[in-house]
Design goal:
about 425 residues, alpha/beta, Arc Repressor Mutant, subunit A, about 20% strand, globular, binds zinc ion
């Protein structure tokens, strides 16, 4: 039930002021109470009280010496206490679980990568996630009280209300309760979300977000997904499924079936998996190619990585397969650009590791297919956080809660 009492209004305004001031402190390297008051328009007594609360009990701000005096006493400067507040970020991939322990500035203190062993099912995989979180916390010898929570990036559809992974074809999971499974061994708050949306959030806080407030992050790996950032906010959609770019149908007459059950989805035509299968089919038709040697004549092992390597050496079959995939992908991205008018499209995932071959193919399609002006102004670039993209995004899931003072989702700071 909603609380409409005057006390509830007061608490709400108080929290809004805290969030506002915390954002100002984080955005500036250091700032005096007087300047916070000028920037926010809040009264000096309010600023003094709120800054006091952010210093203790929250532990999210600290005093750091004195600034230049402007007549009278030099002002005490305040800054965001990023170093004392740590987060575990987990990139739960189908081949590897990659975990980082990072401070709130995105500075990585330690990292671990272990095989996922997806065949062990949800229970086995989540037990391995536990191993990673425990090792990160123990091996780095930091005070456990400084760790605010665990963020996690998972491939699949996430029901944010019910806090479950509804469906993940990559893992073969349906309705998996991640938090329940992990909470037996771990009392840290856990927040998880779809991997590509998490990557977009990571880019927003630690990557291209420093420059762009409107961008799309596209992940082209085993599957294809996107995270959409509009005016500095990640788009979720009515049920939290926004950004399923891989399941936009780009060939209505296609006979290639997607993992989702439809035919002609972008993911079925241009993902890493699709590139591998398309090359295998071309080879099965008897065409000569260096891919045969690369896979030691074991056609089913031909991967997108091999196709990219062969294409870079001018192999005709590989060039054709890769080019066709880029044609579909570039066409899809041109559609995103026309629809959303982003400042940038940031692309990550295994297939994008092909570098120039990949990006030149995409840019060519965009030039061809985007309506004139805004297409020319959009920047197409690789994810700035590289292989850490999803793990740092997972860290920013907790940062996001901290900045909005949703402290129920994060532990209070150990200094309290
Ligand atoms: Zn699909």
């Amino acid at each position: 039930m909603r609380d409409d009492s005057p006390n509830a209004d007061c608490a709400y305004v108080r929290r809004l002021n805290q969030v506002k001031i915390l954002h100002v402190i984080r955005e500036r390297k250091s700032v005096s109470r007087a300047d916070i008051s000028k920037i926010t328009g809040l009264s000096p007594p309010t600023v003094t009280r709120v800054v006091g609360e952010l210093i203790k009990p929250h532990g999210l701000a600290i005093e750091v010496g004195e600034g230049q005096p402007q007549g009278g006493r030099p002002p005490v400067l305040i800054r965001f206490n990023a170093e004392q507040n740590l987060v575990i970020g987990i990139d739960l991939g189908t081949t590897h679980i990659y975990g980082v322990l990072s401070d709130l500035n995105g500075k990585v203190i330690s990292e671990i990568r272990i095989p996922t062993e997806v065949q062990t099912g949800a229970t086995g995989v989540l037990r391995r996630v536990e191993i990673v979180t425990k090792r990160l916390a123990e091996d780095s010898c930091v005070d456990a009280k400084r760790i605010l929570g665990i963020g996690m990036a998972v491939a699949g559809l996430i029901d944010r209300d019910r806090k479950i992974v509804t469906f993940s074809p990559d893992f073969g999971w349906k309705n998996v309760e991640i938090r329940c499974a992990l909470s037996h061994s771990c009392d840290l708050p856990i927040i998880f979300d779809n991997v590509t949306r998490v990557m977009a959030l990571g880019e927003l806080h630690y990557g291209v977000g420093k420059k762009f407030r409107n961008f799309v992050c596209v992940n082209v790996g085993h599957g294809i997904g996107s995270g959409i950032v509009i005016d500095g906010q990640v788009l979720y959609g009515a049920e939290g499924f926004a950004g399923e770019f891989g399941h936009v149908i780009l060939d209505k007459d296609s006979t290639i079936r997607c993992m989702c059950g439809n035919y002609g989805c972008l993911e079925a035509l241009a993902s890493g998996r699709a590139i591998g299968v398309s090359a295998q089919n071309a080879l099965a038709g008897g065409r000569p190619s260096m891919l045969r040697e690369m896979c030691h004549n074991s056609l089913t092992t031909v991967s997108a990585e091999m196709v990219a390597a062969a294409a870079q050496q001018g192999d005709a079959v590989a060039c054709e397969v890769f080019r066709q995939a880029m044609e579909y992908l570039g066409t899809g991205i041109a559609g995103l650009i026309s629809l959303l008018n982003p400042q940038a499209v940031v692309i990550g995932g295994g297939v994008s590791q092909a570098g120039d071959l990949f990006f030149a193919g995409i840019r060519e399609q965009i030039e061809k297919r985007v309506m004139n002006k805004h297409g020319r102004r959009v920047t197409i670039l690789p994810v700035t956080l590289g292989v850490r993209s999803a793990a740092m995004g997972a860290v920013s899931l907790i940062l996001n809660e901290v900045l909005n003072l949703n402290m129920a989702n994060c532990k209070a700071h150990g200094a309290s």
